[in-house]
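ok so I'm stuck.
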Amino acid sequence: MDLNEPYSPTTPRPPGTTVTMKTVLYLFTTFVIAQLVGAVLYGLYLHRKMDKVEGEMNLREDLLFLRRLQKCLKPQEADTTLLDCSAILNMFQDLQNRTSKVPQENYIGRLAGKEEKPTASIHLAGFKDSSQPVSVLQWTEALYAPSDDTISHQGGKLKVTRGGRYYVYAQVTFCEKPRSHAPFNVYIYLHLPSERDQLLLKGMRTSGHSDVIGSLQSVHLGRVVELQEGHTIFINVTDSSKVNYDHGNTYFGMFELSKKSL
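replied:
not stuck anymore, here's the structure
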């Protein structure tokens, strides 16, 4: 090799070859990405299709079982069919036994405290026990009114055996006396053992100046209270001789508030 020979660099690639390779690489990458996306979409389609087919197969099996059961239940067809009617009837009996256990399981769940207890309620009507004024208004069970063992009443007092939040309400209707200016007050008290009675609600109605004997007015009270087991509630008024006990005029009640309604 002649050292005096001038150095010639490598001949560069034609510009067209580089552009062609980039184009081929771009098309190949696009093709691969399109194949992946298509595979994913096709897989989702197959998954939904299989779920639909499985649901239709289950439905067909149920319908087939019902048809077999119908044939076995008909005496004229049970003798001519090749079905194992004893096995089919045993399966049907097993299904009946399973469904009959559902109420029992719900009852066990209620005993375990898994289900919410039913709300308690009571509604009482005013009851005139004596012609003499009384310190506590008396009550009796109203017609078609709810009542249960959770709330009891005795001596004009309501007593709860289960603590919770209750809505207490009452309406007292009274007769106005002619030319009487004394207000008529209604009080709802909470009786606590070994403690002083607590005033929960107070309502007042000032008598008018009507000269008509027997004119009626009403006082309505209501609120939510937090009660504990053994708490009792009662009502008294300023003058019990004015109270009107006609049907629907004077009443007293309470109901327990469920957690959903709070």
